């Protein structure tokens, strides 16, 4: 696997660039967010990459951040979403915007991405719920559990597995005692959800 590339940009033709690395030109498909963050032709850049091997091609996708690559990898796990569609989604929505749309179950926003209809958006919400993290201040307080107690994350994971959404699960654990164990925490959180 090729996990990262550093080289000079010798061609830019959205959504593809060519990186010159010691005389070898690597064709790399990038999201538009990454494309706009790239330096000028001839400049050096480092990209996090994901290589996809198919019967008819070896494709290389590049990302300006590890977070964007991680989001791309999660999108590939959603049934019906291939590499080109995942790249289109990341061109329309940043990783934080995508995580926020999933967390708030915003079908309309998700459907605004190319090749994503209502059913695909609903499938994304179902399959990615709780798997994408929000960075920075959006994550603090609104969706993040108390970091001092690792049991809270296990409780939230259990609630997600039971079919509750991210927001409901996070809200249910906010009022739990600080050092509750997982089994008691799940029982108390379920009581909170039933109110």
TrEMBL record:
Region (Domain I): 1-64
Main location: cytoplasm
Superkingdom of this protein's organism: Bacteria
GO biological process, one term: DNA repair
One Gene Ontology CC term in the entry: Holliday junction helicase complex
Keywords per UniProt: ATP-binding, Cytoplasm, DNA damage, DNA recombination, DNA repair, DNA-binding, Helicase, Hydrolase, Nucleotide-binding
Coiled coil ranges: none
Residues covered by the Helix-hairpin-helix DNA-binding motif class domain: 73-92, 108-127
Chain spans, region Domain III: 147-195
Family: Belongs to the RuvA family.
Notes concerning its domains: Has three domains with a flexible linker between the domains II and III and assumes an 'L' shape. Domain III is highly mobile and contacts RuvB.
NCBIfam families: ruvA (TIGR00084)
Protein name: Holliday junction branch migration complex subunit RuvA
Classification lineage: Bacteria, Pseudomonadati, Pseudomonadota, Betaproteobacteria, Neisseriales
Underlying gene: ruvA
């Amino acid at each position: 696997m090729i996990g990262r590339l550093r080289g000079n940009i010798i061609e830019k033709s959205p959504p593809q660039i060519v990186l010159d690395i010691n005389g070898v030109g690597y064709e790399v498909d990038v999201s538009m967010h990454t494309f706009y963050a790239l330096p000028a032709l001839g400049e050096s850049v480092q990209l996090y990459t994901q290589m996809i091997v198919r019967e008819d091609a070896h494709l290389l996708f590049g990302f300006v951040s590890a977070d964007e690559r991680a989001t791309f990898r999660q999108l590939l796990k959603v049934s019906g979403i291939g590499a080109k569609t995942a790249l289109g989604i990341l061109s329309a929505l940043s990783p934080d915007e995508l995580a926020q749309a999933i967390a708030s179950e915003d079908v309309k926003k998700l459907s605004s991405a190319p090749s994503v209809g209502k059913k695909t958006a609903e499938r994304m919400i179902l399959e990615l719920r709780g798997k994408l993290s929000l960075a920075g201040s959006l994550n603090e307080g609104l969706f993040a559990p108390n970091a001092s107690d690792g049991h809270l994350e296990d409780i939230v994971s259990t609630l997600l597995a039971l079919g509750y959404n991210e927001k409901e699960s996070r809200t249910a654990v906010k009022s739990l005692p600080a050092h509750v164990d997982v089994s008691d925490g799940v029982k108390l959180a379920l009581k909170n959800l039933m109110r």
